[in-house]
Amino acid sequence: MSDALRLAGVHKRFGETPIIRGVDLAVAPGERHAIIGPNGAGKSTLFNLISGRYTPSEGEIALHGKRISGLAPHQINRRGLSRSFQITNLFQNMTVFENLRCSLLWAHGYKYSFWHLVGRQAALNEAAEQWLERLGLTARRDVLASLLTYAEQRTLEIGTTIAGGADVILLDEPTAGMGLAERDHTMAMISEVTRDKTLLMVEHDMGVVFELADRISVLVYGQIIASDTPEAIRANAAVQEAYLGEAH
Amino acid sequence: MSQSQTARGALLWHIGIWALFALVIAVLPYIFTSSSSISMMSQMGVFIIFALSYNMLLGEAGMLSFGHAVYFGLGGFFTLHAIRAVNDGVWSFPLELMPLVGGAGGLAFGIIFGSISTRRAGVTFAMITLGIGSMVESSANMFTDFFGGESGISGNRVTDVTLFGFSYGPSVEVYYLIGAWTVIAAVAMYLLTKTPLGRISNAVRDNPERAQFVGYNTTIARFIQFSLSGFFAGIAGGLFAIMFEIMTAPNVGLVQSGAVLLMTFIGGVGVFFGPIIGAVLVTYMHTALSGFSEGWILYFGLLFVFMVMYAPGGIAGVLCVHAAPWRAGHLWRLLPGYLLALVPALLAIAGLVAVVEMGYQLSLAYDPSSPIDLFYMEVNATSLLSWLVALLVLAVGIAGVLGAARVVRARWAEVNRSMQASGAKT
Ligand SMILES: Nc1ncnc2c1ncn2[C@@H]1O[C@H](COP(=O)(O)OP(=O)(O)OP(=O)(O)O)[C@@H](O)[C@H]1O
Ligand SMILES: [Mg+2]
User: Fold this and answer.
1) With contact defined as beta carbons under 8 Å apart, do B334 and B404 qualify?
2) Any bridge partners for residue A62, and if so which?
3) Is there a contact between B314 and B353 (Cβ–Cβ < 8 Å)?
4) Ligand positioned closest to the Cα atom of A37
């Protein structure tokens, strides 16, 4: 069976500066995979490469065995990969409900239709309402995204990413900047809404990572120095030295 | 259950608003009966469609075009050629549907030029539209068969081929034809905002990057929106051609493109009905002011600069800001400040008008010392005293407005505070 996601020899240079320096990574279908690493290691850049925001300078990326490197973001999204952003990236002038509905439009097959009225598409609206409920944002349905609290924006960011029905989900520090209680709540929500999906997640909080992940990869200065189960990572001396030691 | 009830309520509300819009259009000629009013109101209809089609770009999709008159003007030329063909007996097509010929022309050229310009967004898009606009305007001198050269193309709208038995010779019959198309086109453009394409156009405007990551090709979304906007601009151009029975090169030109940008902006790009207000107001200003002042373009320019600086949401934006206090029942508390500002504002405007008119008199009149009529007074532009008085009035007016602005701001702060305290929804 082919990997949900496979990176082979991926490099990325900005000008002369190498940021990603040869990454090989395989994520099995249904796996929850965390990427950890110090600030500036290239984690977000890696996500940008996978999701098509940047194209790799070298190497190949495949989704379900089919090459996606070189495709545009919307093409990759249509093949079933969706991502969230480390810095919240919503439709700020739309309500919470409309943000969710917009992220459902393509998945529901509406494309660029100008002969359907969105308000009258029962299945579409019902799906959007259900997402409101799953995210716990029903009470904030008609509030503009720009007026949400920080934690609510992060929640909507995750919802917008997952609602479209992609089966490979990339979350870039979904709980960054949250308080403890909010973080636990958000992680529970993530683990609920990504059930049966393949999840690749950047996360700084070790507690969260060791609890949720099936496997962990450690990215340091553009290279993966270890990729293993949480227990093995915890015991890995090189990781201790390169990352966990200084982080704690 | 309650969900479908609110949906039905919203539907009735929408139908009611549009029925009212149609009713107003139908009744106006009974109130303003003079032929100049009929002509002005007909133009308003044309420019309502044109400005709404422009807002499909600027307001809905965030595309700043400097060349939208291309689709308006070409639509008009196509319509006029079609009318001439009917009059020559080589084609038969009812006059009522002639604007569709303009729409088809606008759509066709929207597709052609849109496929180039919508590949880019932002400043690059704006530059390309400017280039296409000047290219089409200058090509009018080359393709004289189509554009008619200096004198343009003219025709006779009375074709004898009609659906409803009107001749469309009398201008009031043309008014109703334009009015009917205004309602149809406005409703169609309104409904477009509620379609997947409309929603995604907003998404592409707000955050093109995120739109891509929910599966949309932003170039295609912009392209389709642009082409449809060309269609409606072409309908407006077709009606313009029917009304004036003549089309000339400037109708596709950059000045016309600038005019629709200004009226849309002044009306307000953020709300659907904004461009309707803008089209009505600017057409009125144009007709009313250009009659008695050479400086009307200057006044118009000053109004535009003032709006850009102090009310970037346009008139519709100013109205919408007052919706929340209105609903919370606090609107009356803002009124004293506004009334206080009104008097010095009128003074400032009077002083400004006096300065401008005297300036024009000095530089343009055959005899600068001949008196001009200003506010029911005879004013001599060559006398130092008139200038001193005018400047004094202007200065006092501005000072008064600045003072009143402080009161207005304080009132707003109060109203906002009590709205927050009463937990009015955000
Ligand atoms: N578009 C770009 N052009 C040039 N340099 C870039 C670009 N994007 C990222 N970089 C650089 O690449 C390096 C890695 O950045 P990246 O955002 O991927 O790190 P990260 O691991 O996500 O860090 P953090 O934990 O702070 O989010 C940084 O030094 C950054 O300055
Ligand atoms: Mg990052």
Assistant:
1) no
2) A6, A67
3) no
4) 1
**Chain B residues close to A53, C-beta within 8 Å:** 209
Could you tell me if B240 and B260 are in contact, meaning their C-beta atoms sit under 8 angstroms apart? no
pLDDT value of residue B381: 83
Q: Is B127 helix (H, G, I), strand (E, B) or coil?
A: helix
Number of Cα atoms under 13 Å in the Cβ half of residue B115: 5
Q: Which of B214, B220, B228, B232 to mutate to test the interface with A (most CBs of A within 10 A)?
A: B214
The pLDDT assigned to A247 comes to: 47
List the Cα angle A75/A76/A78 in 5-degree steps. Answer: 65
Atom 25 of ligand 1 has which residue's CA nearest to it?
A39
Closest CA to A41 of A19, A64, A74: A19
Interface contact A117-B194, CB threshold 8 A = yes
Burial of B174 (0-12, 13-18, 19+ CB in 10 A): buried
- Structural domain that includes position A154: 5-247
Tell me: pLDDT of B50 over 80: yes
What is the percent of chain A where pLDDT is above 70?
97
Q: Which of A176, A170, A169 is nearest to A155 (CA)?
A: A176
Distance CA A165, CA A69 (A): 21
From the number of C-beta atoms within 10 Å of its C-beta (0-12, 13-18, 19+), residue B130 rates as: middle
Q: Which DSSP string do the residues of A58-94 spell out, in sequence order? A: EEEEEETTEE-TTS-HHHHHHTTEEE--SS----TTS
Which pLDDT score is estimated for B292?
A: 66
Q: Which helix (H) or strand (E) holds B378?
A: strand B377-379
Q: Give the integer Cα–Cα distance in Å for B258 and B416.
A: 37
- What the block records as the tokens of A89 is 């990236």
> Residue B158 — φ and ψ, nearest 5°?
-80, 100
Instruction: Give me A44's structure tokens.
Output: 């977000």
Bridging pattern class, strands A58-63 and B377-379: unpaired
Whole-number pLDDT of residue B208: 96
By CB atoms closer than 10 A (0-12, 13-18, 19+), residue B243 is: buried
Q: Does ipTM exceed 0.90? A: yes
Number of domains within chain A: 1
Beta bridge mates, A223? A220
pLDDT in tens, B296-354: 888 888 889 999 999 999 999 999 999 989 998 888 999 988 999 999 999 999 999 99
Q: How far is CA B156 from CA B87, B168, B245, B373, in A?
A: 8, 10, 6, 40
Partner A, chain B 208-247, Cβ-Cβ below 8 Å: 209-218, 220-221, 224, 228
DSSP annotation of A241 reads I
- Per CB-CB distance under 8 Å, the chain A contacts of B199 are 98, 101-102, 105, 118
* A212 to A56, A190, B55, B79, B252: CA distances (angstroms): 29, 10, 48, 66, 62
**CATH (domain of A75):** 3.40.50.300
Whole-number pLDDT of residue B4? 66
Taking every pair of C-alpha atoms in chain A, what is the biggest distance, in angstroms?
61
Q: For an interface test with A, give the residue of B199, B200, B213, B425 to mutate (most A CBs within 10 A).
A: B213
Which pLDDT belongs to residue B29?
97
Residues of chain A with pLDDT under 50: 247-248
First to last CA, chain A: 38
Three-state DSSP at B62 gives coil
Q: Which domains does chain B have, with CATH numbers?
A: 32-312 (1.10.3470), 323-421 (no CATH)
